[in-house]
Amino acid sequence: MSLLAPASLALLGLLPVIVFLYFLKLKRREEPIASTYLWRRAIEDMRVNALFQRLRQNLLLWLQLALLALLIFALARPAMKVRRQEGRRYICLIDTSASMAARDVRPNRLEAAKRQALELVANMRRFDRMMLMTFDAKPAVLVPPTSVKSRLREAIEGITTRETSTDFAQAVDLIAALGPEVKNAHLYLLSDGRFATDAVAEVADVELHYVRIGEGTENVAITALDSRRSVEYWDQPQVFVRLENFAVTEADTRLELYLDGELFTARSVVVPAKDSAAVVFSDPGLTEGLVKVVLADEDDLAADNTAWLSLVAPRQVRMLVVGGGNYFLELAAGQDPLCAPVFVSPEEFEAGVASGELSLGDFDLVTFDGYAPGSLAPGAYLFFGVVPPIEGFAAGGEVKQPVVVDWDGLHPINQYVNYSNLFLERALRVAAPADAHWLVEAEAGPLILWWSSPRYRVVVVGFDLFASRWPLRVSFPVFLANVVRHLGGVELEGGASRVRPGTAISFAAPPGAGEVTVTYPDGATAAIPVRSGRVTFGDTYRCGPYGFAPTGVPAGRRAFGEARRKTYVVNLLDKEESNIMPRRTLQWQKRQVAGTLQVAKENREFWAWLTLLALVVLMTEWYIYNRRVYI
Amino acid sequence: MSQVRYQEILDDDFLAKIEQLRLVSRKVIVGRIRGERLTKKRGRSVEFADYRSYVAGDDLRFLDWNLYARLDCLFLKLFLEEEDLHVYLLVDASRSMGYGDPTKLDYARKVAAALAYIAMANYDRVILGAFGGDGLRLVGPLRGKHQILRVLDFLAALEADGPTSLEPVFKQFALTQRRRGVVVLMSDFLDKAGYESALRYFLATNQDVFVLQVLAKEELEPPLVGDLRLVDMEDADTTEITVSAPLLKTYRRTVESFCGALKSYAGGRGMNYLLASTAVGFDVLVLDYLRRRGLVQ
Q1: Is the complex ipTM higher than 0.85?
Q2: Which pTM was predicted?
Q3: In this structure, are residues B111 and B49 in contact, taking their beta carbons and an 8 Å threshold?
Q4: Residues 205-264, chain B, touching A (beta carbon < 8 A)
C-alpha cells in the first residue's frame, strides 16, 4: 500500500490538541452532598463489576481520537496496487444530422437525445467507461473511453446539430477500427434511424441498443433545386423546384422565390400526402443572382424548407487565337456562343506584345496553332502541333500515323468527345512534366495532354490539325468548346457551385492569389490559404451560400475568368433526411434491433448513505444516553 | 441554620390529629411512676395476671375462693400494675442532616415533636436528645402536654453541625439512660465508621428500639448531571464523578443495599426499622406509616 498524499499525515499533530481540549473542557462543578460514603461505594462497585466501566469514562475521548486519525489517514490518500477492475464499456453514439433538429419533440430531437445520453452517464457504475461519439455526414469521437462523468456531461451539453445527411456506415467503420477498445461494448445509438443500414460493416462483440428519438412526421421539404439554360434562350434560365410531403395529410403551402435577398415571386403549391410536386420558375427577370426558395409554412424540420441556387449569367470567354489562319479552328471558335475569339497572326502577336498593345492578361484563353512564343506569361493556353515554352515540355521527334489507344472519358475536356475515329498522319512525340495528365493516348505516347501549375493551365494537342481529319469530325468543336469552358473558367449553369453539406469545396485560385476570404451563410468570414494553386474548404456544415473572394490577384487579371467573387451554395436536398419518421427497427449484425423510447433505468444503490445515517443516529443515541438529554 | 418557629414544627391541625394517638411498645415495660400503662410488674389493677400460694400476711381480699372450693387450697390472685412509659427520642443533628430540601433535620425535628406530643399527652415520660458536634444533649424527662413548649424550644434550637459519630453517642446514652423504654432513633446513619457497633449498645439495654432512617429525596434520587466534584458536608471529602445512567443505577442499588443492610441488622436484633424519605410528608409518616408499624395507635 502507498500513500498518495503523505503530507496530510502532518495533521496527526491535531491528536494531542483533541486530548488537551478534552481534559480542558472537564471543568467539574462542586456539589455539596450529605456524605460521599454511598457514592464511593457505588463507584467502587462499578469498577469492580465491569472492566468496561473503567474504559467507558474515556471511551468518547478514544472515539474522537480514532475518528480524527481515520480522517487524517483518508486525507493521505492510501492506495494499493490492485489488479485493474473492469467495468462495462459503453459507446454513446449521438446522431447530429439535419433530421435531429426536428421539433416534434421539444425543444428538438437532439436535446431529447442529449437527455438520454445524460441518463446513460448517470447510470454508469464505478469502473464503467464510456466513449462519446457523434455522427452525421462524418463521425467524430468527442470523448475517448473514460470513467470521468463530468467530462462526458460537459461534452454532451456542447453537442449541436449540423445540417447534413447521415452516414451511419462511416461511424460503424470508425468503431470497428478501435478494435479491443470496444470489445464487448454496449453501443447506445441515440437517433431517429434516418439512414441506410445495408452497407454497414459487421462489428463483432458490440451489442447495439437503439434508442429511438422522435415521433412525428409532419414535414414538407425541398428535395431538388436546379436550373437550366436552353441553347436558344441561354440568357433566360429556368429554375426547377421539387417539393415532397412526408406527412399523412395533404399540404397546401406557399413557395417563395427570392433573388439577391428580395422577394421575386411566390406560388401556392398543393402537395398530396406522401407525394411530391414540382414547380418551375421561368419568369422574365430571373437571369442571374443568388436565388433562394423558401417554404413559407413552418413544420417540424426547418433545415429543408430553404434552398439556394447561384444563377450566373453566362460570360463569354475571350480567346486569343494566334495562328496562321485555320478555317476549322476559326469556325469552331466562332460558332461557340460562349467564345469571343480574336485571331492574330504570329507576327501580329509578336508586334502587339512588343508594343504593349496586346496583353495576354486581357484574354481568358490563348490558343497557339502551330506557333509557340519564346516565353509565356502565367495563364491558360491551348497548343496545337507545338509544345509550350515551359520547362519540362519538349518535342522529341515525330510519330508516323499514331493510333489512338485510349482516352480519359471522365475528364471534363473529354466530355461527349469520341476519339475512336481520330486518324492522324503524324504527331509529335511530346515529353511533358511528370505530373502532366494524358487525355488521349496513342501507342507511341500521349497525343493530347493536360497540365496545370500555380502559373499555368495548359492543354497540348501534339499534332497539327491539318495532319488529321479531326477538324471534320463533330468531336473537334465539342473538344474545343470543352477546352473553352474548362480553361476559360466558365461556371456551368451554377451546377458546379452546388455541394452537399459536409463535402469539401475545391477550386483553382487565380494565379497570384495568396489566400481567399470565405463568407459563411451567417455573414462570418475567415481566411483560407491557397495551396498549390487550389483552394480547399471543408467547413460546409451549414446550408446556405458561401462566398469566396480571392485576395492578391493583380488588377485586370482575367485568367481563369476569376478575379471576382465565387459563390457556392450548400443545400440539404436529401429525401432520406427530410423523411423524419423515426425508424422503429434497425438492421444490425444480420438481425433487426427494435428501438426503445428511452434508456433503461438501473437500480442505483444508496445503502452507503443509509449506513452513514445509521452511524449518525448511533452517535446521537450515545450522546443522549450519556448526557441524559431529555426531549 | 436559623431558628425555627414553633408553628413551623407543629401546626394546630396536625396537633388535633395526633391528639388521640398514643405510643405503643411491644414490650410492656416497668416504669417508676404509676402511669397509664400496664406493666409486667404485679400490681393492683383490674387485669388478672397470675396465681400464687397464700402465705401469712397476704391481703385476703385477693384470695380466689372458687379455686379453694375446688382444690381446697388457698391461692392469691395477682394483677398487673399500671405504670408510665419512658420515651426516648434521639435526633441526629450532625451536619449531614442539613442536606436536602426540606432538610433531614427539619423532617426529624417535626417527627420528634409529633412523637413527643403524643407521648406527653398520654403522660408518658419523654426524654429528648440530640447529637452532633457537641455530643449528646438531653432534655427531660418531660411529662404532660403543658411541657410541649420545652420540647419545641429544644428542637427549634437544633442546628446541623458536627460529624456523624454514632458509637460514642449511643454508648453514652446506653450507659446513662438505664430505664428501659421506647427509643426512637432519627438519623440518616451515614456514619463512615459504620452503625453496627453503635446499635449494639441498645441490645444491652433491652429497650424497644425504633430505627427511623431519614434520607432526603435528593439522596434517594439524585438530580445530578454532568461532571461533578462531590463534597462531603461533614468532612469535606471529595469524590469526582461523571454522572451517567449506569452510575446512577449503581448508586441507587448501593443506597438500597445500605438501607436493606440496616433493616436486616436492626430486624435481626429485635429492633424496628423504617426508612423515611423527606418526599413523604412527616404527618403521613406519623399518622400512617408509624401507625402501621405499631409505634403509634
Answers
A1: no
A2: 0.51
A3: no
A4: 216, 219, 224-234, 237-247, 250-251, 253-255, 258
